[in-house]
Amino acid sequence: MSKAGYLIVVLYFVLISIAQSSSSLAEGEQPFSPAVDVATGALHVPENYTEWPTLGTWAHANTGESLEKMGPGLHEYHTVYTQPETIAYYKKTGRFPDGAVLVKELLNAKTMAMTTGPAVGHATTIKGWFVLVRDTKGRYKESSLWGDGWAWSLFNAEDPNHTVSKNYKTDCIPCHVPARELARSNAPDADKWIYAFGYPVLQKK
């Protein structure tokens, strides 16, 4: 085979390799996280998140004005989901892996008397979602929704693809400050933003 022929063959296989790589990405392969648009860094609510394991659920009781109007009871549930591999990694290492997604489903709630008790709360309709993605690489530094080891975004129920958050430092961080005081002392700094103590499934047995 001539030198020119050899170069043509090599070029052919290089082009085939590039085409295959581009094709796999075009088919939706997500190299970083299923909640991230890798081109822009924008988050969205993963379509299949309810098929993931539940980390835990938080119940929010009526307080202040709502307590006066509605009496004792619940007004909101927050159910948190993550990938099974995130749980396995955390139990092994004590930290959240790069690309881990936490989806907090915000649910309206109603309290009513039942045979099991006089004030039993249950979820009703979806109010929205809060999505967090662990970022150990410091990606998307120009984005106001990426920083402190995570990507942060809140979504209203009518639009799971476009966040209403503008800046994580003012829109998201304040609600997570208490988590740092309650986190275990040897947790990675970025992981201290997460209320991990409320998720028994993450604890080693």
Please tell me how large the radius of gyration is: 22 Å
Provide the CATH topology of the largest domain. Answer: Chalcone isomerase
State the separation between the terminal residues, measured CA to CA: 64 Å
Count the strands? 6
Largest sheet: 6 strands, antiparallel
CATH class of the largest domain: Alpha Beta
Shape: globular
Overall SS class:
alpha+beta
SSE order, one letter for each helix or strand? HEHEHEEEEHH
Poorly predicted runs of 5 or more residues: 6-30
Please tell me the CATH architecture of the largest domain by its name. 3-Layer(bba) Sandwich
Signal peptide: 1-26
Keywords: Signal
Pfam families: Cytochrome_P460
Domain Cytochrome P460: 46-180
List the helices and strands and how they pair.
Layout: H1 3-26, E1 54-61, H2 64-70, E2 74-82, H3 84-93, E3 101-114, E4 117-134, E5 146-147, E6 150-156, H4 168-171, H5 173-182
Antiparallel strand pairs: 1-2, 2-3, 3-4, 4-6, 5-6
What does this structure look like?
It is a single chain. With 205 residues, the protein is of the alpha+beta class. The chain folds into two domains: 1-30; 31-202, Chalcone isomerase (3-Layer(bba) Sandwich), CATH 3.50.70.20. It is 27% helix and 28% strand. It is built from five helices and six strands. The protein has helices spanning 3-26, 64-70, 84-93, 168-171, 173-182; strands at residues 54-61, 74-82, 101-114, 117-134, 146-147, 150-156. The protein has a six-stranded antiparallel sheet with strand order 1-2-3-4-6-5. The longest helix has 24 residues, at 3-26. It is globular. Mean pLDDT is 85; it is low at 6-30. This is Cytochrome P460 domain-containing protein. Residues 46-180 form the Cytochrome P460 domain. Residues 1-26 form the signal peptide. Keywords: Signal. InterPro entries: Cytochrome_P460, Cytochrome_P460_sp.
